[in-house]
Each structure stands twice: as structure tokens, then as C-alpha cells.
Write a structure and sequence with these properties.
By secondary structure, this protein is an alpha/beta fold. It is 34% helix and 8% strand. It is built from 10 helices and 7 strands. Strand 1, helix 2 and strand 2 form a beta-alpha-beta unit.
């Protein structure tokens, strides 16, 4: 929806910036923007702040956090910054509360897409926070679910905790609904090998992907190192010299001692860990 909103602004000849929360979302949105024929307008909000403050965003002195922004100073300096024609914020529930008071001062055309159910950090913005910091702007509730099949939507609905956002209406039953299978495994290694077997099967179906969700970066790294044997690694790579198999994509924060994962490429068949 955020990309379609940006597309409409561009068709009207307006300048627009679309802010995402992190690099993974930025990669995904960037590919979507290109598919819609929109010139690069998507940027992670931290990089955007760095750009508009010429590489020196006001920070609070905090040796444990290099991203602890001094929002009081940022807000005070808002009048010094160039104004934006149109600003769109995606996944607005993950932005800091003070961020909204700041952006309200630098643009007259602001659109925020937010879903409290998807909030990553509890200390970030609720729908009520966004409403308050923006001064009770007009709101539009999106209730149609175009993203999931009915089977997946029914599964996701079981995790709803009663937040103000609510949940979307269930989509119509589709012709090809997925089958949800729960398997018990004895170890992470066994689980990884089952995933490898599925990946090998899908190599004969070039339009298929295998998604793997691990609880944290340590588990993901362990699964990669212990679960994919040498023969499988070579099979999944394009050449023996490749550090990362082309069809085995990873996304998690880099840590010392780990080779950096490449940018995630969405829409490419393979294994996503």
C-alpha cells in the first residue's frame, strides 16, 4: 500500500520519500518500487536522518548504543532542514514516538502505514502514540487481506492478542490452499537436514522457495554450519569459491567472525534462512 501511495504521488508529479524501518524492509520495498517504475524513493529511516543531518545526527551520550538519538535536539533543529513535499512512512509502529513530532514539522503531506500487531519493540509507537504525536489526523482502517490465503490467515489470527489495530477480514477460500504440517524432530541438525531435502526437491521447481525461520541469529548460524553438509553446500552453490550458496540466503545482524551476508534478493527461488 505504501508503494502504491508513492506511485500515485509520482504520477501527479510530486516529490516523495518513502521511509522504511530497516535494511531488510528497505531491500524489499526498493525492489517493489522498481517494479512499479518509480525512481529510487525508498530509504531506511536511520540513513535518511543521517543524510538530512549531513552525516551527524544528534545523539545522546550512550556507550552501549550508537543509535540513541537526541530527539530534543533533532526536533529543535527541524526548522533548519529543507521541507519535504510528500513523506510516506511504512511500518510506522516501529518508529520512535518522538519521530512523529519531528516529521510533522518538515512536511505538510504525511502518510503513515502502521499495524500494531507487527510491532517489533514494545517501547516503540502504538496507534494511540502516533495519533497523539501527529495531532489526531484522519485515519483509514484497512480490513481486506490480500496478502495471505485463508488457511494462513486463520493460523495467524490465533496469535492475535487484542491490540487496537485489530485483525483483517478473512479472505475467500482459494483454489490452491496450502497444507500446514507440524513435524517433531529430535534435533536442530535433523530439522536442518529435512529442510535440505525439501530444498533439493524444489531445485527441480525453479519457481519455488523454502523459507526457514530461526529464533535468533545464533540458531540460524548453527543451522547453516551444522545442518548443511559439504556435498549439499557445494550443490547449493554456483561455484566452490562462493562463500554463500546463491540460493541459500541469510538475513541476520553481522557479528565478528562471520562472513557478511549479501543483500537479500526477493523473488529469487531458493532457501531463505
Amino acid at each position: 500500500m505504501a508503494l502504491y501511495r508513492a506511485q500515485q504521488y509520482r504520477k501527479a508529479g510530486r516529490e516523495v520519500v518513502l521511509l522504511s524501518f530497516n535494511r531488510l524492509l528497505n531491500d524489499f520495498m526498493g525492489e517493489g518500487a522498481r517494479s512499479l517504475g518509480i525512481r529510487p524513493v525508498v530509504v531506511a529511516y536511520t540513513m535518511w536522518l543521517k543524510t538530512i543531518f549531513n552525516g551527524s545526527v544528534p545523539l545522546v551520550s550512550n556507550p552501549k548504543n550508537n543509535w540513541d538519538y537526541d530527539w530534543n535536539e533533532i526536533i529543535q533543529r527541524a526548522t533548519e532542514l529543507p521541507r519535504l513535499d510528500c513523506l510516506i512512512i511504512d511500518e510506522g509502529q516501529d518508529m520512535p514516538r518522538e519521530f512523529y513530532f519531528f516529521v510533522k514539522q518538515i512536511t505538510d503531506h504525511l502518510t503513515v502505514f502502521a499495524d500494531e500487531n507487527q510491532r517489533i519493540f514494545e517501547e516503540q509507537s502504538t496507534i494511540a502514540d502516533i495519533r497523539t504525536w501527529l495531532g489526531n489526523p484522519p485515519e483509514y482502517l484497512l480490513t481486506a487481506n490480500y496478502r495471505n490465503t485463508r488457511t494462513i490467515a486463520e493460523l495467524a489470527a490465533r496469535f492475535y492478542t487484542g491490540l487496537q489495530t485489530g485483525i483483517p477480514n478473512l479472505p475467500e477460500q482459494g483454489e490452491h490452499e496450502p497444507k500446514i504440517v507440524v513435524r517433531n524432530v529430535q534435533s536442530d541438525v535433523e530439522s536442518a537436514r529435512q529442510i535440505v531435502a525439501r530444498a533439493k526437491l524444489d531445485k527441480t521447481n525453479p519457481d519455488r522457495t523454502v523459507g526457514v525461520f530461526a529464533p535468533d541469529a545464533r540458531a540460524a548460524w548453527y543451522m547453516r554450519k551444522k545442518g548443511y553438509d559439504e556435498d549439499t553446500e557445494l550443490e547449493l552453490r554456483e561455484t566452490e569459491r562462493d562463500v554463500w550458496p546463491k540460493v541459500l540466503q541469510h538475513y541476520f545482524p553481522w557479528k565478528r567472525g562471520m562472513p557478511p551476508a549479501p543483500d537479500t534478493i526477493f523473488g529469487v527461488p531458493g532457501v531463505y534462512l
